[in-house]
Amino acid sequence: MTISKLQVIYSHFQSLPTSVHKVQYLQDNKTDLEKYNIDVNKLIKYYETHGDKAYKPSTNKSDFF
C-alpha cells in the first residue's frame, strides 16, 4: 500500500500542537487540499472559532429538516 499525499498532509496536520499552527498549515496547503474537494476556508473558520475542540455533529433533529 502506498501512502497518498492526503494521508501525509493529514498526519502532519494531526501532529501540530495548537489550532494556530493548524490554521497556518491549512493555509499553506490550501491548493493541495482543494484538489481533494476539501473546503479549506470552512476548516480554517472552524479552527479559528472553536480551537482544537473536536467537532460534534448536531443532535438537534430540527437541524436536519
Number of strands: 0
Are there runs of 5+ residues with pLDDT below 50, and where? Answer: none
The fraction of residues in strands falls at under 5%
Globally, the shape reads: globular
Task: Give the structure's gist in a few sentences.
Helix content is 57%, strand content 0%. It has helices at residues 5-15, 19-28, 30-34, 40-50.
Structural notes for this entry:
- Helix content is 57%, strand content 0%.
- Helix 2 runs antiparallel to helix 4.
- The longest helix is centred in the first third of the chain and has 11 residues, at 5-15.
- The mean pLDDT is 86.
- The termini are far apart.
- By secondary structure, it is mostly helical.
- The chain has helices spanning 5-15, 19-28, 30-34, 40-50.
- It contains four helices and no strands.
- The protein is globular.
Topology:
Layout: H1 5-15, H2 19-28, H3 30-34, H4 40-50
Helix pairs in contact: 2-4
Short key terms for the protein model shown above:
mainly alpha
